[in-house]
């Protein structure tokens, strides 16, 4: 009887030990190849956009309230814009002044072009007059020579009593007239030469003025472009006084109120965009057969009576620990193996309950893996 009481506990302990060994040997294959891997380390996620100010100003009006739903492009908040409207008007006036100055410079260029053309015409006329005067001098010079010779001949004849006093005086008058005509032509040649020099000086001045106007053109055009850029900046700053929803979704709690002075970069409100998904953190040993596109069943703690459906969208390229601020380093010291968690993104199939989901809700996720879809054998049979 005593032996029997000893043998039975020993047999029970041995059977338990054998069972634990068997389970231990099968755990990793089971979790790695299970066709319905499940985890409760899953949460509803959504894109969250913090909205902040781009310019300084006083809050004029807040059009939405905390936790309200907005659509893309809906006006959320407005700042006082009088200063920015005045700045825009000032830059527009500066552009108008720059355009007027540029137009005046074009008028000055046209006037300079007319002055250049006039100077060139004056040079041509003066040169023609100078040429005519030179030809006149040549012609009169021959008359002067002939009148001088005739006067000398009549003077000699008069001394020999071979010519009359009247003939002598006529030759003298002809000589004096030819000399006077030569002086006139020489004066005309001198005047026309002076006119050529004057016209050339006027042409040089007009061309220099035209060149300076061209250079001023470039400066004025650059000034106009600067004024246009200033208008663009003023328009952008004016636009920043109104806050529009960049996407549809729900608003968080407002951090500003009417009458409050805000500065650039100051947080206004958080926008939780529409379109939620699930991040499920699976153990690495559960992902042996999980592939993108696998169907998923989801239950959410807050809506326990409803089962959501979806599919695996992506599997993270690394475990969650690798994205930590200080990734673990197991190269030194004692090592304890810890099963890692790998984030899996799950896209939901919209239904009539999807709108009730909120980022942060806890969920339980069950994936129908490819092995389940192809009717694979049980883990023990496929081992």
TrEMBL record:
A Pfam family it matches: Beta-barrel_RND_2
Coiled coil (UniProt feature): 196-223
Matching SUPFAM superfamilies: HlyD-like secretion proteins (SSF111369)
InterPro entries hit by this protein: Beta-barrel_RND_2, MFP
Keyword Coiled coil in annotation: yes
Every CusB-like beta-barrel domain range: 276-318
Family annotation (Gene3D superfamilies): 2.40.30.170, 2.40.50.100, Helix hairpin bin (1.10.287.470)
Any one GO biological process: transmembrane transport
Keyword tags: Coiled coil
Keyword Coiled coil applies: yes
Protein name: Membrane fusion protein, multidrug efflux system
Organism, scientific name: Bryocella elongata
Organism phylogeny: Bacteria, Pseudomonadati, Acidobacteriota, Terriglobia, Terriglobales
């Amino acid at each position: 009887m005593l032996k029997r009481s000893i043998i039975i506990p020993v047999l029970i302990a041995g059977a338990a030990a054998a069972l634990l060994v068997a389970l231990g040997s099968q755990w990793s294959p089971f979790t790695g190849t299970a066709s319905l891997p499940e985890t409760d380390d899953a949460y509803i996620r959504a894109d969250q956009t913090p909205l902040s100010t781009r310019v300084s100003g006083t809050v004029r009006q807040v059009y939405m309230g905390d936790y309200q739903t907005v659509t893309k492009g809906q006006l959320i908040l407005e700042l006082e814009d009088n200063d920015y409207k005045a700045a825009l008007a000032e830059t527009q006036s500066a552009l108008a002044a720059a355009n007027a100055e540029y137009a005046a410079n074009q008028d000055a260029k046209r006037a300079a072009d007319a002055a250049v053309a006039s100077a060139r015409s004056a040079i041509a006329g003066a040169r023609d007059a100078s040429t005519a005067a030179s030809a006149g001098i040549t012609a009169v010079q021959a008359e002067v020579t002939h009148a001088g010779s005739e006067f000398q001949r009549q003077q000699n004849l008069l001394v020999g009593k071979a010519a009359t006093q009247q003939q002598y005086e006529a030759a003298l008058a002809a000589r004096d007239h030819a000399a006077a005509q030569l002086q006139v032509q020489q004066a005309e040649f001198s005047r026309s030469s002076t006119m050529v020099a004057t016209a050339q000086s006027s042409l040089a001045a007009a061309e220099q003025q035209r060149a300076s106007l061209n250079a001023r053109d470039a400066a004025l055009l650059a000034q106009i472009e600067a004024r246009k850029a200033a208008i663009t900046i003023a328009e952008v700053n004016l636009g920043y006084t109104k806050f529009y929803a960049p996407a549809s979704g729900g608003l968080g709690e407002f951090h500003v109120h009417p009458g409050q002075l805000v500065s650039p970069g100051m947080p206004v409100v958080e926008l939780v965009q529409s379109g939620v998904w699930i991040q499920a953190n699976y153990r690495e040993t559960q992902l042996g057969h999980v592939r993108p596109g696998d169907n998923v069943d989801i239950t959410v703690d807050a809506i326990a009576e409803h089962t959501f459906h979806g599919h695996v969208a992506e599997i993270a390229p690394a475990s969650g620990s690798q994205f930590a601020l200080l990734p673990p380093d197991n190269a030194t010291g004692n090592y304890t193996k810890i099963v890692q968690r790998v984030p899996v993104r799950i896209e939901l199939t919209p239904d009539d309950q999807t709108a009730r989901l909120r980022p942060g809700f806890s969920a339980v996720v069950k994936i129908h893996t490819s092995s389940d879809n192809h009717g694979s054998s049980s883990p023990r049979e496929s081992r």
